[in-house]
């Protein structure tokens, strides 16, 4: 091999049979080693606040056996009833919902009911506060109109009644507190019951068929609404 003219020009006079890379003396940039990724369910990111990423709690594992309750829903929308089953898991000595199933002979709403139960069950299994689901479900209104349950309680949709079942279940296991009823409202309910008042009109506040006339004033026995203040 001979060097010609320019110091950067090299003339090769022999056949190349091998080669190697020669460092020019500069330090190589160190490459950070890859971290070992552990297998397992990764928690989902909820939000980022002040530079700290907050994660949802990991999924709870299902035991072999769970306790639960089944609630029957019978609506004028179908001749077949729906059966809502909510199973609970024990966490720190307290019961909390873990999964929900809805079964019926009526297959008309099968697709969205399966989707609804899967989403609700997924929320349950993240071990967070799931009480917000009650208000979300009860706020769903059917564009075709709701219906009145036996006893005069108005349901804006079938989804809303599923939310009521969830509320009843959470109240039974101690997650939600039962609604407080004032002594005045209790007295009005007792007066209506003793007076044999069976008829009623729809309350403009809570939409329940529970407005009766007491002492010359229309009063709702469900929420306490009164035109007389």
Note the main attributes of this structure:
229 residues; alpha+beta; three-stranded antiparallel sheet; 4 helices; elongated
Low-confidence sequence ranges: 37-47
Strand order of the largest sheet: 5-6-7
Largest sheet: 3 strands, antiparallel
What is the count of helical runs? Answer: 4
Class by alpha and beta content? alpha+beta
Separation of termini?
108 Å
Structure, explained:
- This protein is α+β, with helices and mostly antiparallel strands and 229 residues long.
- Among the domains are: 106 residues; 38 residues, no CATH class.
- It is built from 4 helices and 12 strands; from the N terminus they run βββββββααββααβββ.
- Strands 5-6-7 form a 3-stranded antiparallel sheet. Strands 10-11-12 form a 3-stranded antiparallel sheet, covered by helices on one side.
- A hairpin with an 8-residue loop joins strand 5 and strand 6.
- It is elongated.
- The termini are far apart.
- About 5% of the residues have low confidence.
């Amino acid at each position: 091999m001979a060097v010609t003219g320019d110091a950067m020009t090299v003339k090769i006079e022999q056949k190349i049979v091998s080669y190697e890379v020669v460092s020019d003396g500069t330090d190589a940039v160190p490459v950070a080693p890859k971290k070992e990724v552990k297998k397992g369910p990764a928690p989902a990111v909820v939000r980022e606040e002040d530079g700290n990423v907050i994660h949802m709690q990991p999924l709870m594992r299902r035991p072999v056996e769970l306790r639960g309750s089944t609630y029957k829903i019978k609506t004028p929308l179908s001749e077949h009833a729906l059966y809502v089953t909510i199973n609970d898991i024990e966490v720190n000595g307290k019961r909390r919902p873990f999964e929900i199933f809805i079964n019926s002979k009526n297959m008309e709403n099968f697709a969205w009911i399966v989707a609804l139960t899967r989403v609700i069950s997924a929320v349950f299994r993240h071990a967070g506060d799931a009480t917000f689901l009650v208000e979300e479900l009860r706020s769903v209104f059917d564009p075709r109109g709701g219906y009145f349950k036996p006893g005069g309680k108005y349901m804006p949709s079938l989804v809303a009644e599923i939310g009521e079942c969830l509320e009843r279940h959470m109240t039974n296991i101690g997650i939600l507190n039962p609604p407080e009823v004032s002594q005045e409202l209790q007295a009005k309910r007792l007066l209506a019951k003793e007076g044999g008042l069976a008829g009623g009109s729809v309350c403009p506040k809570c939409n329940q068929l529970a407005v009766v006339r007491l002492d010359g004033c229309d009063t709702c026995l469900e929420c306490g609404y009164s035109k007389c203040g």
